[in-house]
UniProtKB/TrEMBL annotation:
Pfam hit, one: YCII
Lineage of the organism: Bacteria, Pseudomonadati, Pseudomonadota, Betaproteobacteria, Burkholderiales
Highest taxon of the lineage: Bacteria
Protein name as annotated: YciI family protein
Record-linked InterPro entries: Dimeric_a/b-barrel, YCII
Length: 118
């Protein structure tokens, strides 16, 4: 089964970290990625650019409307993801619990929808 580990954090928390502490967090992510690779569960993953660089598209009355950012009513923003392939939700939850952001943000674990039957 494939699962998305959606990583949410407050960007301002990471923006305020001293460079040495940010380097530690990034090293922890590198270690997690290496462990996933070694276990053969990592399919893909990426850090996302900050929310201030995002744009949102909505179609209203047949016309596209573009706005800056997602403007979610939350302090935490989607900052990155891992796509993993493992045997069960329990296994996916174990990987999510190893994510550094789980300490001060959250990691949503969501199974990918199965493709429709042919």
């Amino acid at each position: 089964m494939q699962f998305m580990l959606l990583i949410y954090a407050e960007e301002k928390v990471y923006d305020a970290l001293p460079p040495a502490q940010l380097a530690e967090v990034m090293a922890a992510y590198g270690a997690l990625e290496n462990a996933m690779l070694k276990a053969g569960v990592l399919v893909a993953g990426a850090e996302l650019a900050p929310v201030r660089k995002a744009r949102t598209v909505r179609i209203r009355r047949g016309q596209p409307h573009f706005t800056d950012g997602p403007f979610a009513e939350t302090k935490e923003a989607l900052g990155g993801y891992f796509l993993i392939d493992c045997a069960s939700m329990d296994d996916a939850l174990e990987w999510a619990a190893r994510c550094p952001t789980a300490l001060d943000g959250c990691v949503e674990v969501r199974p990918l929808a199965s493709p429709p039957a042919a």
